[in-house]
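User: Structure please.
Assistant: Input sequence and predicted structure:
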Amino acid sequence: MADGLAELQGSLDNCSEATLKKLLSAVIRKNADCRQKVAKDQNLTTELTIVSEDERRQAAEDQYKEVKTSPNEDHETADDVDFYERAKFVPMRLTYDERKYLRLIDSTMHVSHYTDHMDNAATLRAPAARKLALQMKQLCAVLTGMQIAHSYEQGQQLMSSREFSARSEFFQLVLEIGRRYKILNPERMRDSYGKLLYFLQDSRKPEVRELMEFDSVVRVRTVYDVLSRSPRGLEMLEDPLLRIATMEIMPEGKSRTTIQREIKAKEAAIKSLSSKYCSVARRRKHYNVYSTFSLLRSSYADSDSEDDKTGQQELTEDLVEQCIYSIGDHSTYLRFNREPCDRLIAFLKEYFDPNEAGTSEFSLAIEEGVDGARLSHSHQRQYTFVLQSMTLWREVLDNMFQLWHLAEEDLLDEVNNYALTDTGQGLQRVQKSPRSVAAMQKILQKVQRKVGGWIGSSTVHLGDHNVPNALMFIDKYIQVPRFLGPLVLTLDKIVTLNQTSSALKGYIDSFGGVKVLQKRILSDFFRHAFDGSGADNFFDAGSCIDGRLTSDGTGAHRSNEKTTSPSSSSQDSPASTAKRVSSRLAAEGMCACSLGLAFP
């Protein structure tokens, strides 16, 4: 007995910290009494207490659940676009003057350590009065720094008077511009936006608002808000010409003459709509010779974006044009984000038969415990599982602007507060998000009707240790084009490189040709990116809505570690195959970056 304990002690001493954490987590999870005692003694609220054993058992049972309905294909075309409803969620494009405020808020949040001071273990255990005092100190510091950076004189006045409500319109304007820009450009402000929303979360607390004497959160400025200034403005959303004014001109398969004709038609439509539906003719600024030197430097005080604060409610010709361009930006955004999903769905239907796997090399079947898979699916079931998952992602990205607005409403809800919680991945702001969950369930039902059923769990994780709040939810789905885009680009480049380089053609032929190489990359991706991996239990990963993204990210990461040869089959990975192609390009004296090749 003593020898056994000594041997066990020696083994534990040789374990890494990560291994010890996993072992401790497994021991605590199996012993309910021990779990409760640890959570109580250490004053921790972890996922061990959030998730019950019944919930874990139910999650495991749902992994192979299947619901069948009659498929109802929704043929969506450009004619189905409802500009009236879309305009309610399309943010206005930033003007030149508003970009000055964008740089101000981005820089302010970039250098701020607000979340470091507020979201830590010491603050978690601090008394309510002390926590409130710390919040007020940090909030006032951020606002004061923002005001000083904008205007040193006004900053001095604010520091002496401490009347933040007197500058409430300025703070609301700058904070709203930061939120609006992030929605329009999800790839920007990757660290600043999270701090901005957490800052606004705390500023909306009733006790904080009472002390600050103003609300820092205002509605994000949308196309609908601007056009509603005039009754004729909303009529423009029903004008058939708006479809031409906001159309995206794609060059594929068109002659130069056709492209030029479409550009002229679009410009004419924009000019016609802006002059027809404006309430005030275009205003142009006139400068005399004495004001020439003032144009050489920008000034926040001369910003045209403050026109709204002066009480002017006219719908100018410039504003109408800005609304049209904003709707056009939204169309481009949707195409760019949905296209990888649409292309992969098309590849799936073109290269794979839903009923017959063919050779084992191209079978999509997976087995639990083999190559890291945590699900067991036949080829037919995996085909449907992949199709449903990518269709869901496509619909989520199609409704991203609506979801983003709802996510911000959930995050900034002054009634439904967050709880700073240790989720097993550090301290997170766990907050229920009823609006986002309801919207996701509605999208899920639409997808189920479209594909004719559902395989696996339909649980939406939001407000638990997997997805603590709506910010994490949005951040997960805006990553979809980032890891699907490089894969689609690689598949397209294989065709181009095969036609332009004889050396590369021979290299691609060593895999069996263009079609075979593409199919091998796709079969590997469809197997390993949708295998339910990513965690050691079915509650955190698997076939649930959130788990499909978790396993996809894990599969992309795991594929980078594979090394294969052209003769290999099932072990070949999309990233490794694409990287070998790029390496061959380098050997030919070409740079993969110059061809646009990128890998997750």
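The chain is about 60% helix and 0% strand.
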